[in-house]
């Protein structure tokens, strides 16, 4: 499921026991929650977070997605 402004800024992949949220910020966030981070442009990273329960969606994650949307 892609979330698009002019470009895709986030995507959600549905798996059997979890969701994987990919977001594309202009800077790399450092956190143990981020399971994968790939730099694909000079100022763009694809970063991945696994969501296994509702509590995984917190203000930090929301802020990352908002930053990716800007």
Architecture overview:
There is one protein chain. This protein is α+β, with helices and mostly antiparallel strands. Helix content is 16%, strand content 44%. The chain is built from one helix and five strands. A five-stranded antiparallel β-sheet has the order 1-2-3-5-4, covered by helices on one side. β4 (34-41) and β5 (44-51) form a beta hairpin. The chain is globular, with a radius of gyration of 11 Å.
Q: What is the H-and-E element order?
A: EEEEEH
Radius of gyration, whole Å = 11 Å
**Overall 3D geometry?**
globular
In DSSP terms (H or I, runs of 4 or more residues), the helix count works out at 1
Report on the biggest sheet. Answer: 5 strands, antiparallel
Tell how many strands the DSSP assignment holds.
5
**Average pLDDT:** 92
Give the structural class. Answer: alpha+beta
Helix content: 10-25%
Q: Biggest sheet, strands in spatial order?
A: 1-2-3-5-4
Low-confidence stretches: none
Distance between the termini: 19 Å
Question: What percent strand?
Answer: 35-45%
How are the secondary structure elements laid out?
Layout: E1 2-4, E2 8-14, E3 19-23, E4 34-41, E5 44-51, H1 59-69
Antiparallel strand pairs: 1-2, 2-3, 3-5, 4-5
How would you concisely characterize the structure shown here?
This protein is α+β, with helices and mostly antiparallel strands. Helix content is 16%, strand content 44%.
Main features:
five-stranded antiparallel beta sheet, globular, alpha+beta, single chain, 16% helix
